[in-house]
Write a structure and sequence with these properties.
The complex is a heterotrimer. By secondary structure, chain A is mainly alpha-helical. Helix content of chain A is about 70%, strand content about 0%. Chain A has three domains: about 270 residues, Cytochrome c oxidase-like, subunit I domain (Cytochrome C Oxidase, Chain A, Up-down Bundle), CATH 1.20.210.10; about 240 residues, Up-down Bundle (Cytochrome C Oxidase, Chain A), CATH 1.20.210; about 80 residues, no CATH class. In chain A, strands 1-2 form a two-stranded antiparallel ribbon. By secondary structure, chain B is mainly α. Chain B has a domain of about 140 residues: Cytochrome c oxidase, subunit III, four-helix bundle (Four Helix Bundle (Hemerythrin (Met), subunit A)), CATH 1.20.120. Chain B is about 80% helix and about 0% strand. Chain B is built from six helices and no strands. Chain B is elongated. Chain B starts with 17 loop residues before the first helix and ends with a helix. By secondary structure, chain C is of the alpha+beta class. Chain C has two domains: about 80 residues, no CATH class; about 150 residues, Sandwich (Immunoglobulin-like), CATH 2.60.40.420. A six-stranded mixed β-sheet of chain C has the order 8-5-1-2-3-11. In chain C, strands 4-10-9-6-7 form a five-stranded mixed β-sheet. The longest helix of chain C is centred in the N-terminal third of the chain and has 34 residues. The radius of gyration of chain C is 25 Å and the shape is elongated. The chains are: A mainly alpha, B mainly alpha, C alpha+beta.
C-alpha cells in the first residue's frame, strides 16, 4: 500500500464500506458516541465530569470508571458473541450473513475484548474500589499511577473500537499466532490494531499491579498482619504479582511480532530463521497466568460473598490463602499444555499434563472450602449468593473438562475443537464473570448508597445461567463430533441443531443482559427504598462496611486498629462496631490531575499513528509522553489538605445515619 | 511505627520526618516491583536470543561478527559509570550538592559514551551487511541490545532531569528519593549488560 | 450422532483414546459428583428459613476435615499421573503402531487451503483425498507450505500441527472400511472452513486401484505444478498426480528454511525439530 507523509497508510478506503454489516456496526459506534457526547453537552456536564471524574485520583472513582468501561466493553464483546452464534446457526452448507473475513474479525475482537477490555477492567475496577477499603487504608500507594493505568486501559479499548470504524481488526484470534499474523499473510492494519491495543493496555495493567502490590504490602491498617487480610486482598495480591511476572510475555510476544511486521525482522516468520514455536511459548507463558489473573480475584469475591450470606465465618481461611498462592506459582509451570499438539516428546507432554493436574488440587480444595462455609450456616439467597452457588456447580464441570484437556492424548482429540471453547467459557463465565456480577451486586450499595433491584437481578441470573448451559453444553457435544473452532460455515447437517441450541442460549444471555440494564434503571429510580447510607446493608464482615456508603474521599476519618481477621465482624460481635472520636485530624489527599486523560490521549494517538504509519504523529506522541513525565516531576504541590472541620461535618452526618438505622432496627 | 527493620538498601532518610521515611519506603518498594517486571522482560529477550542464536539463515554468525574488544570497552564504560554513580550516592548521603552534580555529570558522559560505542558497533555491523533483517539471529541480537540501549538512554535523560532538579529544588526529599531510584535503575542496567556480555559476546568468541 | 468420532472409533488409536476418556472421567466424578450433590443438599438444608438446622457461625476450620480435603484430590490426581504418564507414551502420535505390516508412509503438506498427500513409496500424490488400506498403519509426515495447520481425522485419532520448515508426525490406523472426514483444525485464513478432505480406509484391492488411477492421472507433481497447486484455493477439487518429483516434501521444507535431509529425531526433546 502506498504511504503518504501526512496520513501514512490512512485513506478513505479505511472506512468500513466493504460490508453493510460492518458499516452498520461502525454507524452504531459513531452515532452512539455522538449521542453520548451530545447528551453530556446538552446537560452541560463536561465541567462536572472533568472535575469530579476524569481528573480524579480517588481510587473509588477510578474503580467505578473501570467498571463502567468494562460494562460498555461487555456489551460490545457480547454483540460479537451473538453475531457468531447467529452465523453458525444458519451457516450449514451456506455462507451465512457474514463473510469469512468479517466473521474472523468478530471472533478475534470477541476474545480480545472479553479478556483484556472486559475481564481485566472489571476486576481492576472492583479491586480498586474495594482493596484499600478492606485494608483500612485511606488511599492506594500511587494514586497518579492508578489514574494513568485506567486511562491507558481505556486508550487500548478505544483502539479496538476505532478499528471498527477506521480500518479493520485482526483476524488472527485473541492469541494472534504467527506466521498467520505476519505481514505476508495478514497485510492489513488489523493485526497492528490488535498489537497496539494490547501493548498500551498492558502498560496500564502493569502500573495498576505495581500499585496494588505496594498498597497491600505497605498500606494496611495499623496492626493488620498479612494473615489477617480479607481473602479478596490476598487474591488481589496474587493476581497483581502474576501481572508483574506475566505481562512482559505479552509485551515481548506482541512487540517482536510488531518488529517483524514493521521493520522486516525475522522472529516468527516462515523464512529468515524465524521460529513460530517461540511465539507459542512466550505467548502462553503470559497467557496461562493471565487466566489466573482473571479468575483469582473472582475466587476472592466468592470467598467474601459466601460467608456473608451464610452469616458464618469463612471455612479454612489459611487453606484458601495457601491454595491461592499455590495456584499463582503453579500457573507458570503449565503453559505447554496449550500446544501439546505441536509435536513435543511424550516425556515433555506428560510432564506438563501432570503439572496441569496439580493445579486442579488447590482449586478443588477451594470449592470444598466454600461448601463447608455454607455448611451449618444461615443462607440468604440474595443475588450475589445466587451467582456464587451457580458458580460452584458450573465451575466443577469446567474443571473436569479442564483435567480432560490436560491429558495429552485426549487433548490431541479435543484441541482446536469446540470442546476447548466450551471448556474455557465454562471456566471463565462462571469462574470470572459470575464472580464479577456477584461482586457488582454485593458492593454496588457500598459505592452508591443504595442496593440493586433484587427482582430484576434474579431474572437476569436465571436468563444468564440457563443461557450459559444452553450456549455451551452443545459446544461440548460438537467438540466430540470433531467440529473445529472458528468455522464461518460447515457442511455437516448433524451439527446444525447444536449450533441452533447454542444460539438460543446466547439469546437467553441477551435477555439476561437486558434485565441487568433494566435493573440498573429501576434501582436508580427506586433508590429511596433501598437507601442505606449507614454503610452495612448486608451484615458484612470486612472493613469496607465499617464506613459510610459511599465512603468519604478519605475512606476512614480514623484509621481502624486491627488485630484479627474479619475485623468489622469481630467489632460488631464485641458490641463496638464504630469508634468515633470527638476530635478529627486534617487529612492529606492527592489533588486532581489531568495527567491521566493526557497520558491516555497520547497513548491512543501514538497507537493510532503507529497502526497507520503516520510517523510524525507517532513522534509527537512519544515526545508528548516524555515531556509530560518531565513536566510532572517538577510539579511541587500534588496534594491538598481536607480540614478537620470538613471531616467533622461529614462524619457527623454519617453518625446520624448510623444512629437512625440502629434505632430503626431495635 | 518502627520501620527500622524494613529499610531498603541505600536509604537514609531517618533523620527527616517519619512520614518521609514511610513515603520513601513505599516508592522504593514500588520501584523494586517495576524492576522485577523489567527483569522478566529482559529474561524473555534473553530466552528468545538463546533460541535464535543458531538461526542465521545462511547469514553471518556471532563468531564471525562480534568484536569482543569493543564489547569489553563498553563493559568497562558501563562499570565505570556505576562506580561514578556510587560516588554520587555517597555525596547524596552526605548532603553535598556540588560533588553529587559532578558525579552525576560524569555518569551521564559515560552513559552517553556507552550509547555512542554501541551505535558505532551497530553501524559497523550494518556496514558489513549484517542488519536486523538478515536473520532471526541478528533480529534477536539487535533487539536485545537496543532495548538495553534504550533503557540506558532513558537513564541518561533521567540524569539530566535530576541535574536540573538538584539545581532547582536542592536536595529536597523528593529529589533524594528520585536519585536513589535512579541509582537502582542504573545499577540494574549494568547488571543486565553483564548478562549480555556473558551470554552474547563471550560464547561467540569461545566458539 | 457420534458416528465416526472418538466415541465411535474406526481405529485402535481412537478406541484407546475413548477408553482413556471414560477412565479419566470416571476418576474425576469421584470429586465432582459430591460437589454438585453436597452443594444442593447444603443449600437446601441450611437455608435461612430452616431454623431447625444447626447454626455454627464461628466454625471456621477443622484440621481433620482440611486434611481430608487435600487428601482426596491428591489421591485422585496421583492416580491420574500414572494414567497420564503411561497413556501419553502409549498414545504418542510419533509412536509406530503395532502391526504385522509395515506402515504406509504419507507426506502431508498443508497449503492455503488444501491438503496435499504425497505417497513416496508409490510415487503418486493426491489433493484433498487421503486413501489408505484398512488394517495397515499409516505414518503421516507433516509440514506446511504456509501458516500453522493441524491435521485431524476424528474417526481415527488425534491431531498434530503442520509447520513450515519443520516436520511432525502422526501415526494412525483404520480397522474398518469407511470414508471419514479429515480437516485442518488450526485457523489459517479465509478458506479455513472449507479446508476438509476425505480419509478413505479401503481394502487392499481398492488401494491398488487407487494407485493405478493416480498413475493414469496424466499430470505429474513437480516444482512448477506444485507452485500452481500452492496458490491460495478455497474448496479446491480432488486431484491426483501420476508421479512426484524426487524429494519434493523436503524441498518444500527447505524452502522455509529447513535442511533437506533432516528428519524428526525421536530422541530429542522436541519432535518438531527445526534445523536451520
Amino acid at each position: 500500500m502506498n504511504s503518504s507523509m501526512l496520513f501514512g497508510k490512512l485513506t478513505f478506503d479505511a472506512l468500513p464500506f466493504y460490508s453493510p454489516i460492518a458499516a452498520g456496526g461502525a454507524a452504531v459506534i459513531v452515532l452512539g458516541g455522538a449521542g453520548v457526547v451530545g447528551l453530556i453537552t446538552w446537560l452541560r456536564a463536561w465541567p462536572y465530569l472533568w472535575r469530579e471524574w476524569f481528573t480524579t485520583t480517588d481510587h473509588k472513582k477510578i474503580g467505578m470508571m473501570y467498571v463502567i468501561l468494562a460494562l460498555v466493553m461487555l456489551l460490545r464483546g457480547f454483540v460479537d458473541a451473538l453475531m457468531m452464534r447467529a452465523q453458525q446457526a444458519i451457516a450449514m452448507n451456506a455462507e451465512g450473513y457474514l463473510t469469512p473475513d468479517h466473521f474472523q474479525q468478530v471472533f478475534s475482537s470477541h476474545g480480545t475484548i472479553m479478556i483484556f477490555f472486559m475481564g481485566m477492567p472489571f476486576l481492576f475496577g472492583i479491586m480498586n474500589y474495594i482493596v484499600p477499603l478492606q485494608l483500612g487504608a485511606r488511599d492506594v500507594a500511587f494514586p497518579l499511577l492508578n489514574a494513568i493505568g485506567l486511562w491507558l486501559t481505556a486508550a487500548g479499548a478505544a483502539l479496538v473500537m476505532a478499528s471498527l470504524v477506521i480500518g479493520v481488526f485482526s483476524t488472527g484470534g485473541w492469541t494472534g499466532y504467527p506466521p498467520y499474523t505476519e505481514l505476508s499473510y495478514s497485510p492489513t492494519v488489523g493485526v497492528d490494531y490488535w498489537i497496539m491495543a494490547l501493548l498500551v493496555s498492558g502498560i496500564g495493567t502493569t502500573l495498576s499491579a505495581i500499585n496494588f502490590i505496594v498498597t497491600i504490602y505497605k498500606m494496611r491498617a495499623p496492626g493488620m498482619k498479612l494473615m489477617q487480610m480479607p481473602l479478596f486482598c490476598w487474591t488481589a495480591l496474587c493476581s497483581s504479582l502474576l501481572v508483574i511476572f506475566a505481562i512482559p510475555g505479552l509485551t515481548v510476544a506482541g512487540g517482536l511480532l510488531a518488529l517483524d511486521r514493521y521493520l522486516g525482522m525475522h522472529f516468527f516468520t516462515n523464512d529468515g530463521g524465524g521460529n513460530v514455536m517461540n511465539y507459542a511459548n512466550i505467548f502462553w507463558i503470559f497467557g496461562h497466568p493471565e487466566v489466573y489473573i482473571l479468575i483469582l480475584p473472582a475466587f476472592g469475591i466468592f470467598s467474601t460473598v459466601i460467608p456473608t450470606f451464610s452469616q458464618k465465618k469463612l471455612f479454612g481461611y489459611n487453606v484458601l490463602v495457601y491454595a491461592t498462592m499455590c495456584i499463582a506459582v503453579l500457573s507458570f509451570t503449565v503453559w505447554l499444555h496449550h500446544f501439546f499438539t505441536m509435536g513435543a516428546d511424550a516425556n515433555v507432554n506428560a510432564f506438563f499434563g501432570i503439572m496441569t493436574m496439580v493445579i486442579a488440587v488447590p482449586t478443588g480444595v477451594k470449592v470444598y472450602d466454600w461448601i463447608l462455609t455454607m455448611y451449618r450456616g444461615r443462607l440468604r439467597f440474595d443475588t450475589p449468593m445466587l451467582w456464587s452457588i451457580a458458580f460452584i456447580v458450573t465451575f466443577v464441570i469446567g474443571g473436569m473438562t479442564g483435567v480432560i484437556l490436560s491429558i495429552p492424548p485426549l487433548d490431541y482429540v479435543f484441541h482446536n475443537t469446540l470442546f476447548l471453547i466450551a471448556h474455557f467459557h465454562n471456566m471463565l463465565v462462571p469462574g470470572m464473570l459470575f464472580g464479577l456480577f456477584a461482586g457488582y451486586a454485593y458492593w454496588f450499595p457500598k459505592a452508591t448508597g443504595f442496593r440493586l433491584d433484587e427482582r430484576w437481578g434474579r431474572r437476569a441470573f436465571v436468563f444468564w445461567v440457563v443461557g450459559f448451559y444452553l450456549a455451551f453444553m452443545p459446544l461440548y457435544v460438537l467438540g466430540f463430533m470433531g467440529a473445529a473452532r472458528r468455522m464461518a460455515y460447515y457442511d455437516q447437517p448433524e451439527w446444525q441443531i447444536y449450533f441452533v441450541v447454542a444460539a438460543v442460549g446466547a439469546f437467553s444471555v441477551l435477555l439476561g443482559i437486558g434485565c441487568q440494564v433494566i435493573q440498573l434503571v429501576v434501582s436508580i429510580r427506586n433508590r429511596k427504598g433501598t437507601m442505606d447510607l449507614a454503610g452495612d446493608p448486608w451484615g458484612g464482615q470486612t472493613l469496607e462496611w465499617s464506613t459510610s456508603s459511599p465512603p468519604p474521599e478519605y475512606n476512614f476519618a480514623v484509621l481502624p486498629q486491627v488485630s484479627e481477621l474479619d475485623a468489622f465482624q469481630v467489632a460488631k460481635e464485641a458490641g463496638r462496631p464504630y469508634v468515633w472520636p470527638t476530635h478529627y485530624e486534617p487529612i492529606e489527599v492527592p489533588r486532581n490531575t489531568a495527567l491521566g486523560p493526557i497520558f491516555g490521549g497520547l497513548a491512543f494517538v501514538l497507537g493510532f499513528a503507529v497502526v497507520w504509519h503516520i510517523w510524525w504523529l507517532a513522534a509527537f506522541g512519544i515526545a508528548g509522553v516524555i515531556a509530560t513525565i518531565i513536566a510532572r516531576s517538577f510539579a511541587a504541590e500534588t496534594t491538598r489538605i481536607i480540614s478537620s472541620e470538613e471531616i467533622m461535618a461529614t462524619e457527623l452526618r454519617w453518625h446520624a445515619d448510623v444512629r437512625a438505622k440502629q434505632e430503626a432496627n431495635s | 511505627m518502627t520501620t527500622e527493620m524494613r529499610h531498603h538498601p541505600g536509604i537514609n532518610l531517618s533523620h527527616s520526618r517519619p512520614e518521609d521515611e514511610r513515603h520513601a519506603e513505599v516508592t522504593v518498594f514500588g520501584f523494586w516491583t517495576f524492576l522485577m517486571n523489567d527483569a522478566i522482560l529482559f529474561a524473555l529477550l534473553f530466552a528468545t536470543y538463546a533460541t535464535m542464536v543458531n538461526r542465521t539463515a545462511g547469514g553471518p554468525t556471532g563468531a564471525e561478527l562480534f568484536d569482543i574488544g569493543n564489547a569489553f570497552v563498553e563493559t568497562l564504560v558501563l562499570l565505570l559509570s556505576s562506580f561514578s554513580f556510587g560516588m554520587g550516592a555517597v555525596a547524596l548521603k552526605e548532603g553535598r550538592e556540588h560533588p553529587l552534580k559532578l558525579w552525576l555529570g560524569v555518569t551521564l558522559v559515560l552513559g552517553l559514551g556507552f550509547i555512542g560505542l554501541e551505535l558505532r558497533e551497530f553501524a559497523g555491523l550494518i556496514g558489513q551487511g549484517a542488519t536486523a533483517q538478515t536473520s532471526g539471529f541478528l533480529s534477536s541480537f539487535y533487539v536485545l541490545l537496543s532495548i538495553h540501549g534504550l533503557h540506558v538512554l532513558v537513564g541518561c535523560i533521567w540524569i539530566v532531569v535530576m541535574l536540573a532538579q538538584v539545581s532547582t529544588f536542592g536536595l529536597s526529599r523528593q529529589v533524594r528519593s528520585r536519585i536513589l531510584r535512579l541509582g537502582l535503575f542504573w545499577h540494574f542496567l549494568d547488571l543486565v549488560w553483564i548478562v549480555i556480555f556473558t551470554t552474547v559476546y563471550l560464547p561467540a568468541v569461545a566458539s | 450422532m457420534f458416528k465416526d468420532t472418538m466415541l465411535d472409533p474406526a481405529g485402535p488409536v481412537s478406541a484407546a483414546t475413548r477408553d482413556l476418556f471414560f477412565d479419566s472421567v470416571g476418576l474425576m466424578l469421584i470429586v465432582v459428583m459430591p460437589v454438585i450433590v453436597l452443594t444442593a443438599l447444603v443449600v437446601w438444608r441450611y437455608r435461612a428459613g430452616n431454623v431447625a438446622a444447626r447454626y455454627t457461625p464461628h466454625w471456621g476450620g477443622s484440621r481433620i476435615v482440611e486434611l481430608g480435603l487435600w487428601f482426596m484430590p491428591v489421591l485422585i490426581v496421583v492416580m491420574l499421573w500414572f494414567v497420564v504418564w503411561n497413556r501419553t507414551h502409549a498414545l504418542d502420535p510419533y509412536k509406530p503402531l503395532a502391526s504385522g505390516q509395515p506402515p504406509l508412509v504419507v507426506q502431508a503438506v498443508a497449503l492455503d487451503w488444501q491438503w496435499l498427500f504425497i505417497y513416496p513409496d508409490e510415487n503418486i500424490a493426491s489433493v484433498n483425498r487421503l486413501v489408505f488400506p484398512v488394517g495397515r498403519p499409516v505414518t503421516i509426515e507433516l509440514t506446511s507450505d504456509s501458516v500453522m495447520n493441524s491435521l485431524m481425522i476424528p474417526a481415527l485419532g488425534g491431531q498434530i500441527y503442520a509447520m513450515a520448515g519443520m516436520q511432525t508426525e502422526l501415526n494412525l490406523m483404520a480397522d474398518r472400511i469407511g470414508v471419514y472426514d479429515g480437516r485442518n483444525t488450526m485457523f489459517n485464513g479465509d478458506g479455513f472452513s472449507a479446508q476438509v478432505f476425505t480419509a478413505e480406509a479401503v481394502d487392499v484391492a481398492a488401494f491398488q486401484s487407487f494407485v493405478a488411477e493416480a498413475r493414469n492421472a496424466g499430470e505429474a507433481l513437480d516444482s512448477a505444478s506444485f507452485e500452481t497447486l500452492a496458490t491460495p484455493t478455497i474448496a479446491g477439487p480432488v486431484r491426483l498426480y501420476s508421479s512426484v518429483e524426487n524429494n519434493l516434501f523436503h524441498t518444500i521444507m527447505a524452502s522455509h528454511g529447513s535442511m533437506p535431509h533432516v528428519a524428526a529425531d525421536a530422541s530429542s526433546t522436541m519432535h518438531a525439530e527445526h534445523n536451520p
